[in-house]
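TICKET: design request
STATUS: open
ATTACHED STRUCTURE:
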C-alpha cells in the first residue's frame, strides 16, 4: 500500500507543459467518438473519404530510387540534407513559379513532411518574452496550426473563411490590438477544406500587413500540385511576392511530396523563403532531430525532378471531380474547388447527423465540417458542411456519391 501511495504522489507532481490541456481532440478522434457503438450496414462495403490520404499508386521511379539508395541507411543524415536535393528543390521552385533560383545553401531546408515543419515553425517564431503573442489562422483550418500556437505559448486568433467572403481570410476585420500582438500567420492556399486559391490582391494585403506589423507568414502549399487546368496552376506565395516586386522577407513556404507524388508514408517536403529565418530554423532542427533519411532524400530528388507522374496524378483527380461533382448537385450544395482534392459540401441536415447516418446506413465515412473549425466571432464556420476527400478510386467515389444521394432521398 505504501508503494502505491508513493506512486500516486509521483503521478500527481510530475511536471508537464500545461498548454497540453488546451489541445482539443483531433478531428478523426472526434469522428471515432461519434461512431462509437454504431455498426455500419453490412450490406455495403466500406468507403472512407474522410481523410486526405492519397490512394493513387506511388510512381515506380520513386520506389526504385528509394530501393536503389538503401546503402545510405549506413550514414547519419545531416539536418540540412544533401546539396543535390536542395538544388533539385530550387530548380523545381523556379520552374513551377517562374522565379529566380533560390540559393540552395541558404534559402531551402528539406523537412520530414510539411506537418511536422508547420508545427515546429511556431516554436521557432514565437517570442514568449513579449506579452500575449498571437498566431492568426484561417477557420476552418488544418488542426496543426492551433496546436502549434498553443504549445508555443501563443493565442490562436481565427479568421472565419465563409462562403459569402469567397472563403477568404478577411484581415480587415482583425482589430489593431490583435495585429500588434501577431507574430505568425498561417495561410493555406489551395485551402483545406475549401480548395480556394488566394489571389494576388489577397497576397498584397497580407504582405503589406506583415511589413506594418512585422509578423511572419507561414504559407502552407501542400495542395499546390492538385489542380484542374494545366495552363493555370495555383498562384504560390513566392510567386506572388515576385510579381509584386518584393523579396521574401518574413515569408516561408511549406511544400510536400505526399499529395503531389502519392508518397504520404515517405514524409518528405521542404521549407523555403526568408534566408534569415531558414538559417534559424536549421539551427532549431539540429536540436529537434528531424533529419531526413538518406534513401528518402534520393527518392525525393527523383520526385522533384519529374513532372510526368504529377500530370497523370492530376488527370486522375480531375476525372473524379468531373464525374462526382455533378452527381452530388441537388443532393448537397457543392461546386468544383479551385484546387486540392476535397469537396466542401453544404449538407441538408446537421453535419454530424449527416456523417453518422451515412456511416450507419451506407457505410461511407465523411468528416463533419464543424470538426475542422472552432467557434469564433459567434459562429463555427464549418457547421452544416461535410468534407469529402476524393482520394479513393473512381469507382469508389462514384459509389459513395450514389449512396449519399440515397441518404438524401
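STATUS: resolved
RESOLUTION: sequence designed for all positions
ATTACHED SEQUENCE:
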Amino acid at each position: 500500500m505504501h508503494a502505491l501511495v508513493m506512486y500516486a504522489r509521483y503521478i500527481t507532481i510530475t511536471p508537464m507543459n500545461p498548454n497540453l490541456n488546451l489541445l482539443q481532440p483531433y478531428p478523426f478522434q472526434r469522428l471515432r467518438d461519434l461512431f462509437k457503438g454504431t455498426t455500419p450496414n453490412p450490406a455495403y462495403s466500406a468507403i472512407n473519404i474522410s481523410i486526405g490520404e492519397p490512394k493513387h499508386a506511388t510512381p515506380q521511379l520513386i520506389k526504385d530510387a528509394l530501393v536503389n539508395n538503401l546503402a545510405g541507411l549506413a550514414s547519419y543524415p545531416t539536418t540540412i540534407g544533401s546539396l543535390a536535393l536542395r538544388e533539385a528543390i530550387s530548380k523545381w521552385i523556379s520552374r513551377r513559379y517562374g522565379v529566380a533560383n533560390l540559393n540552395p545553401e541558404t534559402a531551402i531546408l528539406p523537412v520530414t513532411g510539411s506537418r511536422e515543419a508547420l508545427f515546429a515553425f511556431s516554436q521557432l517564431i514565437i517570442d514568449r518574452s513579449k506579452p500575449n503573442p498571437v498566431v492568426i489562422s484561417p477557420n476552418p483550418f488544418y488542426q496543426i496550426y492551433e496546436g502549434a500556437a498553443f504549445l508555443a505559448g501563443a493565442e490562436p486568433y481565427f479568421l472565419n473563411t465563409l462562403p459569402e467572403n469567397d472563403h477568404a481570410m478577411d484581415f480587415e476585420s482583425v482589430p489593431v490590438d490583435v495585429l500588434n500582438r501577431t507574430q505568425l500567420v498561417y495561410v493555406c492556399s489551395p485551402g483545406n477544406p475549401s480548395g480556394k486559391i488566394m489571389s494576388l490582391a489577397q497576397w498584397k494585403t497580407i504582405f503589406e500587413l506583415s511589413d506594418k506589423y512585422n509578423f511572419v507568414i507561414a504559407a502552407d502549399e501542400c495542395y499546390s500540385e492538385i489542380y484542374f487546368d494545366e495552363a493555370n496552376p495555383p498562384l504560390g506565395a513566392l510567386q506572388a511576392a515576385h510579381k509584386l516586386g518584393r523579396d521574401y522577407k518574413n515569408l516561408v513556404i511549406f511544400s510536400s511530396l505526399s499529395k503531389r507524388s502519392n508518397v504520404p508514408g515517405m514524409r518528405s517536403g521542404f521549407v523555403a523563403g526568408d534566408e534569415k529565418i531558414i538559417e534559424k530554423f536549421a539551427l532549431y532542427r539540429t536540436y529537434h532531430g528531424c533529419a531526413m533519411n538518406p534513401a528518402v532524400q534520393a527518392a525525393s530528388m527523383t520526385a522533384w525532378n519529374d513532372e510526368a507522374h504529377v500530370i497523370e496524378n492530376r488527370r486522375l483527380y480531375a476525372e473524379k471531380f468531373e464525374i462526382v461533382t455533378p452527381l452530388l448537385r441537388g443532393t448537397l450544395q457543392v461546386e468544383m474547388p479551385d484546387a486540392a482534392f476535397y469537396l466542401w459540401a453544404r449538407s441538408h441536415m446537421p453535419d454530424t447527423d449527416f456523417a453518422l447516418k451515412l456511416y450507419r446506413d451506407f457505410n461511407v465515412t465523411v468528416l463533419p465540417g464543424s470538426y475542422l473549425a472552432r467557434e469564433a466571432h459567434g459562429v463555427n464556420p464549418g457547421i452544416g458542411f461535410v468534407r469529402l476527400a476524393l482520394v479513393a478510386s473512381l469507382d469508389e467515389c462514384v459509389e459513395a456519391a450514389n449512396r449519399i444521394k440515397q441518404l438524401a432521398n
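CLOSING REMARK: The chain has a mean pLDDT of 95. The chain has two domains: 20-57+309-408, 60-306.
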